[in-house]
């Protein structure tokens, strides 16, 4: 009886919260729902994260996170408009309202979060700054690169990280700045630069797209923490909550063993209270976010759980060929950890 009373109290509290939130309109969230389409900012083109396929259809890790969010909102992965943005224009496009959310290899930093009128939401990918050089150069570590000319992307954290490293180690270098990743990659291959400095996952993606990937070496060292995640504009806590708990739900689906192939069966048979909440058997999570009770079921059916998205676009069987490493679940030695969804 005590258990039933507690459950009834929790259900009533969730219903009250849902009613309160329905009455508290979030301007950005309501505008997106009324428009019927999600405007999602993505990379201008990099393998693994966001790149048009042979038919011109955008594919990638970040693209699938955009598609999954459209499913959460509209139960339709196609109700999303992609806006390719350069590193130097991405935050301006977000703060001006050109896009609703930015899923674009963007590192969460304090000064971005507090000083640009935008909010970092939740980490979806862990990375770190590295350098790529010609294998024939026989360079094993960055300290051997004194006097090098280094390709960098303007408007990224990598500019400052590279300058800090060389300055702190009393080494000289010459930066060559580009607006886009493909421009820097072309300059590297044309011998305009001795090295390319950016995050390791992007270096792996760039190398996979080169004519002879074996000619290029990514140094083992990492020089920064680069947690990628979505950004939204300030001013709508309701929209922030939707994006935050959406990312958590994709991760929690993998933690709970929910996949594209078994999601219906798990929903029908599970007795685990957390999984029942996640899959909408009890509807309080969807109510709290003003979403369909089956929002997580619909997301997993459309794009899969976190591991399925990662392996499809970034994993060892893809051209990018990245082991999960820090992006593995915490129960398997990685850093991915979904907040409790209750």
UniProtKB/TrEMBL annotation:
<dbReference type="InterPro" id="IPR051455">
    <property type="entry name" value="Bact_solute-bind_prot3"/>
</dbReference>
<keyword id="KW-0813">Transport</keyword>
<dbReference type="GO" id="GO:0006865">
    <property type="term" value="P:amino acid transport"/>
</dbReference>
<feature type="domain" description="Solute-binding protein family 3/N-terminal">
    <location>
        <begin position="37"/>
        <end position="266"/>
    </location>
</feature>
<protein>
    <submittedName>
        <fullName>Amino acid ABC transporter substrate-binding protein</fullName>
    </submittedName>
</protein>
<feature type="signal peptide">
    <location>
        <begin position="1"/>
        <end position="25"/>
    </location>
</feature>
<dbReference type="InterPro" id="IPR001638">
    <property type="entry name" value="Solute-binding_3/MltF_N"/>
</dbReference>
<dbReference type="InterPro" id="IPR018313">
    <property type="entry name" value="SBP_3_CS"/>
</dbReference>
<comment type="similarity">
    <text>Belongs to the bacterial solute-binding protein 3 family.</text>
</comment>
<dbReference type="Pfam" id="PF00497">
    <property type="entry name" value="SBP_bac_3"/>
</dbReference>
<keyword id="KW-0732">Signal</keyword>
């Amino acid at each position: 009886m005590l258990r039933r009373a507690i459950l009834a109290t929790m259900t009533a509290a969730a219903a009250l919260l849902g009613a309160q939130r329905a009455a508290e309109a979030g301007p950005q969230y309501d505008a997106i729902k009324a428009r019927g389409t999600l405007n999602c900012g993505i990379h201008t083109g990099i393998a693994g994260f966001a790149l048009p396929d042979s038919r011109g259809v955008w594919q990638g890790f970040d693209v699938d996170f955009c598609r999954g969010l459209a499913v959460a909102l509209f139960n339709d992965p196609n109700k999303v408009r992609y806006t390719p943005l350069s590193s130097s224009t991405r935050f301006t496009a977000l703060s001006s309202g050109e896009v609703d959310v930015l899923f674009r290899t963007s590192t969460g930093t304090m000064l971005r979060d507090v000083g640009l009128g935008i909010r970092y939401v939740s980490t979806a990918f862990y990375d770190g700054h590295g350098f790529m050089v010609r294998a024939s150069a026989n360079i094993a570590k960055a300290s051997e690169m004194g006097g090098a000319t280094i390709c960098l992307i303007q408007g990224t954290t990598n500019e400052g990280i590279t300058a800090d490293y060389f300055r702190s180690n009393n080494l000289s270098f010459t930066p060559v700045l580009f607006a886009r990743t493909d421009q820097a990659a072309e300059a590297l291959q044309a011998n305009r630069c001795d090295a390319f400095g950016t995050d390791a996952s992007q270096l792996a993606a760039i190398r996979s797209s080169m004519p002879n990937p074996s000619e290029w070496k990514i140094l083992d060292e990492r020089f920064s923490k680069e947690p990628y995640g979505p950004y939204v504009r300030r001013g709508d806590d309701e929209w922030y909550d939707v994006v935050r708990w959406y990312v958590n739900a994709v991760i929690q689906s993998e933690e709970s063993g929910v996949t594209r192939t078994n999601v219906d069966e798990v929903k029908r048979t599970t007795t685990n209270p957390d999984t029942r909440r996640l899959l909408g058997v009890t509807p309080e999570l969807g109510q709290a976010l003003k979403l369909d009770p089956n929002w997580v079921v619909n997301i997993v059916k459309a794009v899969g759980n976190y591991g399925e998205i990662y392996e499809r676009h970034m994993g060892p069987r893809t051209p990018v060929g990245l082991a999960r490493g820090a992006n593995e679940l915490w129960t398997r030695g990685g850093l991915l950890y979904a907040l409790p969804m209750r």
